[in-house]
């Protein structure tokens, strides 16, 4: 079976030009595979580089070295050095990212925010709307808020809208950055169910969570970035 994502020799260095050119080698020689239907949880103390790795895997940071291969449309795409157009195509259909925070677009109603990824995949509007409504209901967003812009929503409500938006269309590969932070136990359990459903549907996941219950509920394998660092000292 071909991995959904295969990473080899991945290194990321920050050069702080405003601070005497200080160099931070945050990731060095990271290697792993993630298969469809499994979740790799990133471990390591604060500052170990978990968020940096997730952002690098999403193509937000250019690594100093290494390769990130993604199974996309039946072929393998090398993300390191890919054209922006290729990265965008990957992000449209293959590679999703659930951040802790919703990127709020003023004046766009909550229901439309949630529906958008399904519409972009060509799902007819009525199905997308019904699915968005079902997700918002599951995530306990009151119906009176559905027609409003999430810009005024509470932090936890925005996070749940973001989760609904992220799970409305299936992703072959999904990066999760603290998907349950700032949620109460009931909503956290709904997110854990959505993650389990995504895995059962064949998604490969890579996740960061500081919550032990979340980690043990979703994690099939763990990558310890502290150990990686120690290994290469
Ligand atoms: N854009 C950046 N520019 C410079 N340094 C950065 C940047 N982003 C992260 N770093 C540095 O990289 C290191 C790793 O940060 P990162 O946020 O990836 O850690 P983390 O493991 O996710 O931590 P936490 O668990 O606290 O969220 C830190 O020392 C941080 O200062």
Automatic annotation (TrEMBL):
SMART domains xrefs: AAA
Organism: Pollutimonas thiosulfatoxidans
Gene behind the chain: phnL
Any Pfam family matching the protein: ABC_tran
Protein name according to UniProt: Phosphonate C-P lyase system protein PhnL
Membrane-spanning parts: none
Sorted UniProt keywords: ATP-binding, Cell membrane, Lyase, Membrane, Nucleotide-binding
Gene3D superfamilies hit by this protein: P-loop containing nucleotide triphosphate hydrolases
UniProt GO MF annotations: ATP binding; ATP hydrolysis activity; lyase activity
Family: Belongs to the ABC transporter superfamily.
Domain ABC transporter: 5-230
């Amino acid at each position: 079976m071909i991995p959904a994502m295969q990473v080899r020799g991945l290194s990321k260095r920050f050069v702080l030009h405003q601070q005497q050119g200080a160099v931070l080698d945050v990731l060095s020689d990271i290697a792993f595979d993630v298969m469809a239907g499994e979740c790799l949880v990133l471990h390591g103390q604060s500052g170990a580089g978990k968020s940096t790795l997730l952002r690098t895997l999403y193509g937000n940071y250019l690594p100093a070295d290494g390769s990130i291969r993604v199974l996309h449309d039946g072929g393998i795409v090398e993300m390191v050095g890919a054209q922006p157009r290729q990265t965008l195509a990957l992000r449209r259909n293959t590679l999703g990212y659930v951040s802790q925070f919703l990127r709020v677009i003023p004046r766009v109603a909550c229901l439309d925010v949630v529906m958008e990824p399904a519409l972009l995949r060509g799902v007819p509007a009525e199905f997308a709307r019904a699915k968005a409504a079902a997700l918002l209901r599951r995530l306990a967003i009151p119906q009176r808020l559905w027609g409003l812009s999430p810009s005024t929503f509470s932090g936890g409500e925005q996070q749940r809208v973001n989760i609904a938006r992220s799970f409305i269309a299936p992703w072959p590969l999904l990066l999760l950055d603290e998907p349950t932070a700032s949620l109460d136990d009931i909503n956290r359990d709904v997110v854990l169910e959505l993650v389990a459903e995504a895995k059962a549907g064949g998604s490969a996941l890579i996740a960061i969570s500081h919550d032990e219950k979340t980690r043990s509920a979703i994690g099939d394998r763990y990558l310890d970035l502290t150990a990686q660092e120690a290994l290469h000292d």
